[in-house]
Specification:
- The protein has 385 residues and is mostly helical.
- It has one domain.
- 67% of the residues lie in helices and 0% in strands.
- The protein has 17 helices and no strands.
- The longest helix is centred in the C-terminal third of the chain and has 31 residues.
- It is globular, with a radius of gyration of 20 Å.
- One of its GO terms (cellular component) is plasma membrane.
- Belongs to the TsuA/YedE (TC 9.B.102) family.
- It is a multi-pass membrane protein.
């Protein structure tokens, strides 16, 4: 049954790559340009997943208890992780799918993410991680704390996200359409390999995959949905010790993300090995270490907390995710605005700031000249798509 993890991961990796869906880009847009378009897409994942999870819980399909809130670990770990994803150029899943695209900087970030998470969870720092996360307060879920049915909280969340979606869809409709070259493919092939995917449509598919992961992983003996940090640590543990007990549904999931993103990148013509300069490489390595340490302390990443625990209405999930957003703001200040300011002082024009239309290109992309940042897929889109 663990092979369903590989299939689920491959589907997720394909969708993430084709939809250019990365939470780092969503967080970075908020601090760089004030845009909330991708953050709203992130909210769509949470809201739809929350609706589905609450329904599955009511039907007795899933039973995943929520642990008490380790407030200090959630805040500190979230801040560290948020800084790390900016340094590395991608969140947990973003780093995986960009590694599948050929970004060497993401390879380095991924390796050190797995190694540092392994050290925090299974290695010499495991005791510190356990102690930190044992310092809890009594709160578990938002609905329990407020004394409200889960459906009431989910309803309020869904209405809020729905209003944000309406705002951005109206803005999209008012934006002038740009002409592109004729598509080379048609039908499903065009949709899967050429057409630019709307962030909200991508988010809906991601939410569906996250929801399907609950019964699939439960059938394999693992009660949970999507998760990246712990399986990454397990994968690193297996590769260094040969311990087969580490290979479970979740490990197959992350391997599937790599495979699925590789297939998507090859099919769309976006695969290209891109080697970063030494500065970007060191930043990617440092970012990977921060990601592993931060996610281990916080108890999850932008997937485990940001997409899953938030859907469970977990206080830990929401607080840790908020801390990640704040940490990303610090990372933007340290790694992006400071860098651009130095270039301006030196007499060169600052590097182009990524617009809200696209997510970040990842750690390895920063080493490339600006013209090479343009991806081929949007150019091949038909007029009106």
């Amino acid at each position: 049954m663990i092979l369903t993890g590989l299939v689920t991961g491959a589907l997720l990796g394909f969708v993430l790559q084709r939809g250019r869906f990365c939470i780092t880009g969503a967080f970075r847009d908020v601090w760089l340009s004030g845009s909330t378009r991708w953050l709203t897409a992130f909210g769509v994942v949470i809201a739809l997943h929350a609706i589905g999870y609450t329904a599955l819980s009511a039907l007795g399909v899933v039973n995943a208890p929520v642990d008490p809130l380790p407030l200090g670990a959630a805040v500190v770990g979230g801040l560290i992780f948020g800084v790390g994803i900016i340094a590395a150029g991608g969140c947990a899943t973003g780093t995986y799918y960009r590694a599948g695209e050929g970004l060497v900087g993401s390879w380095f970030a991924l390796i050190f993410y797995a190694l540092s998470a392994g050290a925090m969870k299974y290695g010499p720092l495991a005791g510190f991680t356990t102690w930190s996360r044992d310092q809890t307060v009594g709160a578990t879920t938002i609905d329990a704390s407020l004394g409200l049915p889960a459906w009431v909280v989910v309803g309020v969340l869904s209405v809020g996200v729905g209003l944000a979606v309406r705002h951005h869809l109206r803005a999209d409709a008012a934006r002038p359409r740009t002409a592109g070259l004729p598509a080379r493919r048609s039908g499903v092939a065009h949709l899967l390999t050429e057409k630019r995917w709307h962030p909200f449509a991508t988010a809906a598919v991601v939410a569906g995959i996250a929801l399907a992961a609950w019964p699939l992983s439960t059938a394999a003996g693992r009660v949970g949905s999507l998760g990246i940090t712990t399986p990454s640590a397990k994968l690193g543990n297996y590769l260094t010790t040969g311990d087969l007990t580490m290979v479970d549904w979740s490990v197959m999931l992350v391997l599937g993300i790599l495979a699925g993103s590789l297939v998507a990148a090859l099919a769309s013509g976006e695969f290209r090995v891109r080697v970063p300069d030494s500065t970007t490489t060191l930043r990617a390595i440092g970012g990977g270490v921060l990601m592993g340490v931060g996610a281990s302390l916080a108890g999850g990443c932008t997937v485990g907390h940001g997409m899953v625990a938030t859907a469970q209405l977990s206080w830990e999930g929401w607080i840790a995710t908020g801390a990640m957003l704040l940490g990303a703001g610090l990372g933007v200040r340290w790694f992006i605005r400071t860098r651009d300011g130095r270039e301006a002082v030196a007499g060169s024009s600052p590097r182009p700031t990524l617009t809200p239309v696209d997510t970040a290109e990842g750690a390895g992309a920063d080493a490339e000249p600006a013209p090479q940042r343009t991806r081929p897929a949007p150019v091949l889109t038909k007029v009106g798509d």
